[in-house]
Write a structure and sequence with these properties.
transmembrane, 6-stranded mixed β-sheet, Rusticyanin, Immunoglobulin-like, copper ion binding, binds copper (II) ion, about 20% helix, 12 strands, electron transport
Length: about 200
């Protein structure tokens, strides 16, 4: 009788530990892959407008759809602009999916804002260029980040004057060719990406 009670208790405790582990691992997985961290902060319309400025050392060439970044600065990245050539666009300094030429050693503070009313988006730096598969984020989930230099969760669509954002800084210390893309399924596949060239 005593043994049975202990077994019963042990089974109960094991079940509780198992459930707790499932909940904790689910929370970690959800946060890493879908990035609850990406969607909690938002800007108002006026905060967004005040960020929409060109910093010193940033030069824009609309003819070449290229932005030159010679000094460490903040770049506002707006995902899913309604006036873009397609919904698969990033608008940076007034250009859509521009090439960004960055001087080696420069740190860029990216403020990524979802201004799309319909879809989630993110903005990830990668060493891997197009073509991208439908599940361009799978690489991240499958192998723990091969190709991705940064990662963030999906930002919810804008609503009620809330523009959800995520910001991070990246030091471009190695010259070379890199890429930025949205890993929401189908977005990079359909052109939601651009090139980054780090020059000496
Ligand atoms: Cu997207």
């Amino acid at each position: 009788m005593k043994i049975n009670m202990n077994l019963h208790k042990a089974f109960g405790i094991a079940a509780i530990i198992f459930l707790a582990a499932v909940i904790i691992f689910s929370a970690i997985y959800y946060k890493d892959v879908y990035g609850a961290s990406g969607g909690s902060q938002y800007l108002t319309q006026s905060q967004l407008e005040s960020l929409n400025v060109t910093g010193p050392g940033v030069y824009i060439s609309p003819a070449n759809s290229t932005i030159y970044v010679n000094n460490s600065t903040t770049l506002l990245v707006m995902a899913g602009p309604m006036d873009g050539p397609s919904m698969y666009s990033f608008e940076i300094e007034g250009l859509f999916n521009p090439t960004i030429v960055i001087r080696e050693g420069v740190t860029v503070h990216f403020v990524v804002v979802n201004i799309d009313t319909d879809s989630e988006h993110n903005f990830v730096l990668s060493t891997r260029g197009p073509p991208y598969p439908y599940m361009s984020g799978m690489e991240y989930m499958g192998s723990g980040g091969f190709g991705f230099m940064t990662y963030m969760g999906f930002l919810p669509p804008t609503n009620s004057g809330h523009f959800y954002y995520y910001d991070f800084s990246y030091a471009f210390s190695q010259s070379g060719t890199y890429w930025y893309l949205c890993t929401y399924p189908g977005h990079a596949e359909n052109g939601m990406y651009g090139k980054i060239v780090v020059d000496q």
